[in-house]
Give the backbone structure.
Amino acid sequence: DIVMTQSPDTLAVSLGERATINCKSSQTVLHSSSNRNFLAWYQQKPGQPPKLLIYWASTRESGVPDRFSGSGSGTDFTLTISSLQAEDVAVYYCQQYYGSRPWTFGQGTKVEI
Amino acid sequence: QVQLQESGPGLVKPSETLSLTCTVSGGSISNYYWTWIRQPPGKGLEWIGYVYYTGATDYNPSLKSRVTISVDTSKNQFSLKLNSVTAADTAVYYCAREGNGWYNHWGQGTLVTVSS
């Protein structure tokens, strides 16, 4: 199985400041023929299911604010919240969907103010 | 807008079978992969397995010997059975619809506690 490791586990950011979450996969999730990275990001607030933010490593889901952006390729990825809002307090997960299942999630990064 | 709703017992005794159903509304169950994912309290997300609308399945190897996922297209539902449960199976169980690998539609989740 591909192991996804996020850092840090917890991130404290002031309102209006940038938040950066890292995700590293144990093997590449870049599909060479399509040149796409098979990686998604989710936001989970307490008592709610995860919400899809980004897929293909950098494509924002419809309705997701543009302060959320994804970058990276191969094995190293980043989710950036450009200007943290109070409603962004949540746990964020990366997920790979490369190759055969099981598709796996990172352990989560808690973003707090 | 597609909506998913889990249903089933919230308490299961050790060694018994956990059974949950996910009802899909606002869209057809056809042409998609339907997935179960669980989250132990305070922990991360674990993919359990999927069923395609044709009935094809795939399961997490760590659970494969105990899991069955099935689909009932006439009812727009799919189901999870996990047998021989222990306290380690206590979790919030989510049903979800897979896009092209990602999950863009989720149920609200249901907490299942394994306890005597």
User: Anything to note?
Assistant: Chain B touches chain A at residues 44-47, 50, 58, 60-62, 94, 96, 99-104, 106-109 (CB under 8 Å). Chain B has a mean pLDDT of 96.
